[in-house]
Amino acid sequence: MANVDGSATLQRDREHGAHFAVSPSDPRSIFVPEDFSAEQVMFARTAREFVEREVRPVAERLEHQDWELTVALLRKAGDMGLLAADIPETYGGLDLDKVSSTLIGEHLSGAGSFALSHGANVGIGTLPIVLFGTEEQRARYLPRLATGEWFAAYALTEPDSGSDALGARATARLSPDGSHYVLNGRKQFITNSAFADVFIVYAKIDGQQFSAFIVERTFPGVATGPEEKKMGIKASSTRALILDDVRVPKENLLGQAGRGHVIAFNILNIGRYKLAAGCVGAAKEALELTARYANTRRQFGRPIASFPLIQAKIGRMAAYLYASESAVYRTAGAMDAALSEVGDEAGDRGPQIAARIAEFAVECSVNKVFGSEMLDFVVDEGVQIHGGAGYIQEFAIERMYRDSRINRIFEGTNEINRLLIPGTLLKWAEQGKLALYNAARAVQAEILEPIRAAAQGGPLERETQMVTVIRKLFLLAGGMAVQTFGQRIEDEQEVLAALADMVIALYTAESALVRAGQCAARQLPAAEAHRDLAALYIAHAFPAVEEAARQVFAACTEGDELAAACAAARKLARGVPGNSVTLGRRVASRVLTTERYLS
């Protein structure tokens, strides 16, 4: 692969899912945005131009739920290939790499909640058929979905089952002659339900076997409820899907009976990291329009951009965005490397592709939680910098503030994902897939030995040491939690959430650090800006990790043992912190001067 400037990308071994939690990652194995090829940049540009030319001029009509316009725009997107990225060429798709499809999602985020209509269609609506459909199912549906002749929706949530997907009450009963299933139930909060032609529906066969079905809108008994009145994302359709004795041909069972959870969880993994990509795109827009406002708004005889507290906000917004962007494309690149192992001769490649994606379940949850909370932070600070104007609908930041909030609920709530992160790591450790316990024991042994002062090296040496300490603190706290609670740890949700926050900080900090280091090694013109962004993010993330570790220690023990654990953490975390004030001002100065996130 070539870089944007035409130079060759470093040859890299592939990164394996979740291994970042137990050992430092080889920087050569990590994909960074500066690795984008000319072709990948072209797809990003195509998506961005589609938004600027086709969507922004009619944004107000979309906000007032003109579904005919939404459908027309989606079909234009289909004409430009923007619906076909993840569909195999055999079925009329482009079969792009994950980095390219992620770039499309990021740059379509400038279309506001119209991007959700696109994302639900090409992602969670279409991918179940791509990955788990039979040859006949793919041939029937994918060519139509690739062009925009048909649109797809994903119907999992029910009134009594949201994050608890396996608690669904929708039922499926095989007809006496075995020719079809009869589906009954009600799904809620279904994106694209006003105009979707195909629904991926989950129901329990005979009330027990959780399974997936392809349901067409034209099947008798399929209906949708009225449009939900939402806080935000008003340009996307959200309705209930009602199934009343719907006869679904047995050929439309997706995957195997009773294996619907395999489809649901794999598709949610993809949805999570793609959601984070959309958050990155939205945060870039929010940061840049906030910088423009801060430069033009004057108070006390000067632009508010000149005030240090405003600069501190701008700097932190940019640093958190940098960490999220670095993590998202690291994950996309890692998936591409893993998927390259699935050869064309592999026969039915769908399940093998899904297995490679499942390897990065932890990274997908990390991206989802961090990306959604990063965007909420950015738009909240954007409103604050706008002051009273930020509360007025005339200003775009007001809509972005309302639209952002749903991301912490979509694709599994952030609370559920925080439980999944350490839960998955512990499960893989028990299965022998991850040397988590060995790594934890190594850290416990290390703190008993004298610790030598770290050698002073290059400009990112301090940050490199801080990322190393973040990993060790997680392993120390995680080891103590497992020793204390054993199998009962799944009931200690506060402890699991604190461990998850440490893992999230580790992945995002390492991603930012490696990216900045690669830019420095390549002597890119913006290397200093990258270094400052990474250093500023790590300076903010590190104290939060220390606090999370203390929270875990306090939940596990007390008295002298607690004091000893805290002393061990201080021993690991020794050193002089970075000057986040100076770093923040430098980052903010660049953003405010260019009115760009990263030039």
Can you walk through the features of this model?
Residues 1-11 have low confidence and may be disordered. The chain folds into four domains: 19-150, Butyryl-Coa Dehydrogenase, subunit A, domain 1, CATH 1.10.540; 153-254, Butyryl-CoA Dehydrogenase, subunit A, domain 2, CATH 2.40.110.10; 261-415, Butyryl-CoA Dehydrogenase, subunit A, domain 3 (Up-down Bundle), CATH 1.20.140; 432-594, Butyryl-CoA Dehydrogenase, subunit A, domain 3 (Up-down Bundle), CATH 1.20.140. It has helices at residues 38-55, 59-63, 67-79, 98-108, 114-125, 127-132, 135-147, 260-296, 308-339, 350-358, 361-386, 396-404, 414-430, 436-446, 461-485, 493-521, 527-556, 559-572, 580-594; strands at 152-155, 171-174, 180-191, 198-205, 209-216, 222-224, 238-249, 253-254, 298-299, 302-303. The protein is 55% helix and 10% strand. The longest helix has 37 residues, at 260-296. Strand 9 and strand 10 form a beta hairpin. The radius of gyration is 24 Å and the shape is globular. The two termini are 23 Å apart. The chain is built from 19 helices and ten strands. Helix 9 (308-339) packs across helix 17, helix 9 (308-339) packs across helix 19 (580-594) and helix 15 runs antiparallel to helix 16 (493-521). The strands form two sheets. Strands 1, 2, 3, 4, 5, 6, 7 and 8 form an eight-stranded mixed sheet that branches. The chain has 599 residues and is α+β, with helices and mostly antiparallel strands.
